[in-house]
Amino acid sequence: MPIESLAIFCGSQKGQHPIYEQHAEEIGKIITEHNLTLIYGGGKNGLMGIAANSVMNNGGKVYGIIPKVLVEWESQHEGITELLVVEDMHVRKRTIYERCDAAIILAGGFGSLDELFEILTWNQLAIHDKKVFILNSNGFYDHLLTHMQKVADEGFLYGDLQEKLIVLKEPKELLAYL
What is the mean pLDDT of residues 91-111? Predict the structure, then answer.
């Protein structure tokens, strides 16, 4: 299935290393250059906002889905193509998954990890078969990837981990899959 819309899961903060911001900006440019639509959590702060702004500043389309409880916390992005306010986090995640053709996870906190594991679980259960990418900026996910390989090595996964998850070190590596 061709990728026309890409979900991005990442921090509502910028993190400590400037590479996280740089990579969020680059992903936004790639999305626009390849006429993809960005689907994301609807916030204007942190890496989420940087990616959305990058797409908008380059003439692309951005659809944000944000739960009511986070409207004030995340300062919803008013300058995107469409912002949908939904009832809760579960509806947010389901709506993002329904609207995207693939997902990429950038640096982030518990929310990004939750979204990563839910989409991987849904792939494993054949609820969908969307490509899942991790952008491992500056080795951010090295420890997690090591643990995930341990989970696979110990026989707790169905199928091959590398078939479920594509690890990228640089944003430009995404181009091979578009």
Answer: 96
